[in-house]
């Protein structure tokens, strides 16, 4: 299908091609701009709704606090009433007239305060005063001191406690209310005389923010500190709302867009620090979206008009486009594939002809630059390999001469002779008549000679074990890749251990690769040191020159096909892993 479309497009005239191309660009432009504009407008809408919701919640908070503060003040006034103080203190005990007067004052308060539905007063001797706009309730518990909140109210020493439905002391309720509870103290001695409970029906609490509720078409839920509803649940899924409140715990204000009944709703959370309550609100986007629709339509018309203008411009420009552009584009496509063909253009002074001539010059310079770069890279690789060899050979030589000098001082002449013999064999193998490639068996001979020298130097400080696949011995490899790793295991690992150590050299032929593992049980190394070695940090004293040089040589010779890694743990040991490509009876 794609080939058919491309073939049809290729056979169109240039004017039609440009027209079709700009039609596609215009379509993409319209879609992209429309999506971008929609995203920006939705972001603006979200911020506007969020700001409205936040202001609304703060207004509701203020109204609720106003209602509760007023009730608080009335409860204080009732508690400080002189006749009530005397009666609760026992001074006016059995004085019927005084009790009637107190009840009359309570009824007047209830009538004066429309936000209060009932008032209950309990003294320490089981006596109570009660007025209720429905019916006086009876305690469902033995006495007021049995209420779960009783001790907490006493500890507040006159400050109020807010609970739902008086904490259930009147049994099951058909109408929900918020109870303002405080202890009545003797004004002279400040000793507790009783408890006063003033109840605010939920209908009156809702009425405090009804106007705001109606104006913005909000759904409101008031939760206590345990995320239980303080007023009737107005949401279809209260569990989800409470989970939302839990997720917003610890924040003053939080809002998020949720999808409900295929409509976008902004769910907002506000914490009322004074009582540790929370207000949850849900506000729909519909009303504010309508305000944006007119602006959206106008913007789309402008975008479409602009695209049409661009299309007519493309038709005009296409009249001046001719064959040289085709030739130039064709050659440029070849350059992408690595083919540098010059283009043949007619003589002329137009910008397209000049562009074609500059293109031919550029092609020539690029070809020359590629040739030079390849030659430079080849020379650089050869030089770096030679430098690394020259660095590694003296490195091993210094250590070997040091060991021979130690034996000479000990008058072990035969061992000195044997050590020199081993050293000679090492250089005969390592030089390999100038070749960088030797068999794996020859590489092992170098390692064994080095181990022999180190055993003369360090005695039985370590043992070496071999676990080799016989097929590996005849494989060719880059020389001097094992000896620096073994040297690192002895000098930096086992030597500092303070007791006999073990080195294991393993070699396996797996899936076209030679897998080498050199493992020791020395002191190990830190992750910082490992990172220095693997990242070629030559400035760090902690990075081992032998390991770093070996890995660098492997990088230069095998490139990305070679893999190596170091696994080590302090006090446990170190394991060096090499994975070298192997093809057709040799090394890649």
UniProtKB/TrEMBL annotation:
Residues passing through the membrane, by range: 21-37, 297-322
GO function term, MF aspect, one: phosphorelay sensor kinase activity
Primary location class: membrane
Protein name (record): Sensor histidine kinase
Taxonomic lineage: Bacteria, Bacillati, Bacillota, Clostridia, Lachnospirales
Domain HAMP: 319-371
This protein's UniProt keywords: Kinase, Membrane, Phosphoprotein, Transferase, Transmembrane, Transmembrane helix
Annotated Gene3D superfamilies: 6.10.340.10, Histidine kinase-like ATPase, C-terminal domain
Protein species of origin: Vallitalea guaymasensis
Compartments (UniProt record): Membrane
Single GO cellular component term: membrane
């Amino acid at each position: 299908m794609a080939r058919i479309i491309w073939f049809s497009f290729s056979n169109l005239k240039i004017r039609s091609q440009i027209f079709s191309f700009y039609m596609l660009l215009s379509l993409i432009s319209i879609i992209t701009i429309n999506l971008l504009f929609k995203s920006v407008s939705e972001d603006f809408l979200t911020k506007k709704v969020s700001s409205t919701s936040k202001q609304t919640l703060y207004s509701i908070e203020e109204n609720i606090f106003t209602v509760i503060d007023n009730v608080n003040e009335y409860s204080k006034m009732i508690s400080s009433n002189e006749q009530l103080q005397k009666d609760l203190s026992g001074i006016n005990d059995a004085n019927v007239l005084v009790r009637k007067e107190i009840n009359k004052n309570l009824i007047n308060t209830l009538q004066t305060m429309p936000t209060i539905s009932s008032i209950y007063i309990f003294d320490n001797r089981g006596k109570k005063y009660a007025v209720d706009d429905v019916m006086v309730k009876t305690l469902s518990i033995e006495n007021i001191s049995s209420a779960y909140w009783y001790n907490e109210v006493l500890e507040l020493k006159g400050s109020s406690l807010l609970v739902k439905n008086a904490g259930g002391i009147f049994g099951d309720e058909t109408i929900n209310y918020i109870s303002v509870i405080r202890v009545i103290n003797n004004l002279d001695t400040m000793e507790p005389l009783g408890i006063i409970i003033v109840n605010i029906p939920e209908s009156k609490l809702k009425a405090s923010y009804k106007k705001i509720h109606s104006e913005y078409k909000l759904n409101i839920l008031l939760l206590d500190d345990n995320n239980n509803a303080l007023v009737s649940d107005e949401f279809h899924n209260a569990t989800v709302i409470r989970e939302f409140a839990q997720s917003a715990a610890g924040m003053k204000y939080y809002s998020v867009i949720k999808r409900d009944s295929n409509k976008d709703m902004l769910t907002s959370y506000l914490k009322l620090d004074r009582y540790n309550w929370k207000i949850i609100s849900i506000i729909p986007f519909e009303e504010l979206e309508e305000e944006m629709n007119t602006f959206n339509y106008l913007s789309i018309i402008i975008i479409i008009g602009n695209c049409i203008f661009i299309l007519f411009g493309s038709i005009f420009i296409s009249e001046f486009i001719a064959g040289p552009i085709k030739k130039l584009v064709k050659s440029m496509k070849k350059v992408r594939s690595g083919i540098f063909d010059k283009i043949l253009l007619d003589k002329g002074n137009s910008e397209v002809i000049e562009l074609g001539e500059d293109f031919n010059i550029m092609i020539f310079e690029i070809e020359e630059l590629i040739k030079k770069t390849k030659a430079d890279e080849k020379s650089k690789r050869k030089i770096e390999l030679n430098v690394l060899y020259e660095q590694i050979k003296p490195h091993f030589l210094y250590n070997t001469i040091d060991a021979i000098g130690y034996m000479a001082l000990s008058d072990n002449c035969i061992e000195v002779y044997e050590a020199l013999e081993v050293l000679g064999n090492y250089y005969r193998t390592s030089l390999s008549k100038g070749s960088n490639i030797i068999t794996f068996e020859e590489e092992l001979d170098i390692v064994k000679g080095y181990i022999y020298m180190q055993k003369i130097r360090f005695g039985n400080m370590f043992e070496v074990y071999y676990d080799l696949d016989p097929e590996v011995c005849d494989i060719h490899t880059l020389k001097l890749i094992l000896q620096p790793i073994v040297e690192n295991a002895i000098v930096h690992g086992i030597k500092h251990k303070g007791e006999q150590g073990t080195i294991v050299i393993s070699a396996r032929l797996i899936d076209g690769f030679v897998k080498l593992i050199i493992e020791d049980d020395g002191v190990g190394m830190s992750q910082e040191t490992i990172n220095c070695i693997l990242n070629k940090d030559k400035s760090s004293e902690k990075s081992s020159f032998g390991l770093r040089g070996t890995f660098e040589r492997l990088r230069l010779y095998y490139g990305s096909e070679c893999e190596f890694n170091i696994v080590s743990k302090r006090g446990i040991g170190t394991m060096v892993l090499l994975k070298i490509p192997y093809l057709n009876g040799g090394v890649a």
